[in-house]
Amino acid sequence: MKKWLSIVGVGLVAFSSLVCAQDKANLRSVYNMMDDKQYEKAAHKLQGLVKQYPKDADVRYQFGLSLLRMHKFKEAINVYKETIDISDSYSRYATFDIGLAYAGLEQSEEALKHINHAIHAGYTNFDRLKNEPLLTKLNNHKTFKFSPEQQYKEFTAHNNIVVPYKTILPTHFDNNKTYKGMVAFPPGDYGKASADWMVDKLFNNHDNDEWIITVVLAPEKGLINHPAHHALNDLMSHQRKKYKIADNQFHFLGYHSGGAPAATYSQMSSDYVNGLTTIGNYYWENWKDSSLKNFSAKPTHLFLGEKDKIGIEINQRAHDIFKNEGMMVELKIFEGEGARITALEDGQLYKHLQ
Predict the structure, then answer these.
(1) Do 317 and 276 fall within a single domain?
(2) pLDDT at site 35
(3) Could you report the per-residue pLDDT of 218-276, keeping only the tens digit for each?
(4) For residue 148, is it within any domain?
(5) Distances 209 to 139, 173, 179, 192, 313 between C-alpha atoms, Å
(6) Domain ends where: 143, 166, 191?
(7) At what angle do helices 57-69 and 91-104 cross, to 10 degrees?
(8) How distant is the alpha carbon of residue 86 from its chain centre?
(9) pLDDT class of 64 with cuts at 50, 70, 90
(10) pLDDT at residue 142, as a whole number
(11) Among 53, 89, 178, 277, which residue is least crowded by beta carbons within 10 Å?
């Protein structure tokens, strides 16, 4: 899985050259190097890109990540702090990685302080929290709690890409009835631990009378690329045939970094999509005004927590442009909530999707 493509959830989509809000470095080759564990090679390239694009927070973040993987922990901490200075939108991700660097330095107290601060700030990449090797250095590594593991099926598309997914059926499901369809993209690296969290907190064990929900995980070579896009279309066709989906279309929902595939594929698979919801999504930051103006007119919900000031600023801009273009769009700010909106958990999400 191309985990590096989803760590931050902003500026990482393969199609970003079409929508980028400002001149940014093309990091596709860097992501490939990181996936292939060529960290020294990636760091060398990123060091040059930092000089070329000094205000590009993603370049600096990836530079910090390459140093982290090379176990240059003190250098990584300094670069991550610079990243936060450039862009607050990277704060909880860089703070989490600073915690990992302190774990690598075997400073458990500092490590836990930064990791817990990131989680408190709304860090929802449970894939990294569960699978990160550096966390094994912490004395009380077992203190982190995860949602119960779910069971996922595997769908093999026509292009042989295997997409893990889980179908959540309405309470008292009746195969003869027609239901609304939803495709949900989890936060984090679009992996199992983050999907487990989404299923447990948003969808499971609640009174759902209306929705057939398909939770999609990233296939082996990543979620946001053209082969995966075609595989997702095949999966939706499969769900259309298996269940009675209203209008044969789906509402796309993305939580945090899940907003990137939700928004991107709502355009690329427009025949399948009748609406979009993003929760705490920073992805709009990278879209030019002209690209937002050309966004296909799907009813769109933008959900933010009141304390997520950066997220509100990013989404307010998108909302205003959508509104001016005559789109049906809602910007809903949840009072007292942060980046993780607990008011949408325990079955409360459904009532906000009417």
Answers:
(1) yes
(2) 84
(3) 999 889 888 999 999 999 999 999 999 999 999 999 999 999 999 999 999 999 999 99
(4) no
(5) 45, 8, 8, 25, 34
(6) 143
(7) 20
(8) 21
(9) very high
(10) 62
(11) 178
Beta bridge partners of 216: 165
300-305 β-sheet, strand order: 153-156, 162-168, 211-216, 179-185, 245-255, 273-279, 300-305, 329-334
Choose among 8, 9, 23, 14: nearest CA to 288. Answer: 23
> Cα separation of 276 and 259, whole Å?
9
Helix (H, G, I), strand (E, B) or coil at 214: strand
pLDDT at 18 over 60: no
Contacts of 52 (CB under 8 A, 6+ apart): 25
Summarize the confidence of residues 28-57 as an average pLDDT: 93
Tokens of 289: 């005004």
CA-only gyration radius of the chain, Å: 20
Token pair 């930051």 is at which residue? 285
Helix axes 73-86, 91-104, angle to 10 degrees: 170
Residue span of the structural domain in which 105 resides: 3-143
How many whole angstroms from its chain centre is CA 196? 14
Q: Is the pLDDT of residue 325 over 70?
A: yes
Residue 284 in domain: yes
Spatial neighbors of 170 by CB under 8 A, at least 6 apart, are 179, 208, 209, 210, 211, 212
Run of H or E including 91: helix 91-104
For residues 208 and 171, the answer to whether their CB atoms sit within 8 Å is: yes
CA dihedral of residues 49, 50, 53, 55 (deg, nearest 10): 160
Q: What's the residue count for the chain? A: 354
3-state helix, strand, coil in the chain (%, to 5): 50, 15, 35
The span from the CA of 274 to the CA of 270, in Å, is 8
86 Cβ contact partners less than 8 Å away, ≥ 6 residues apart? 55, 56, 57, 60
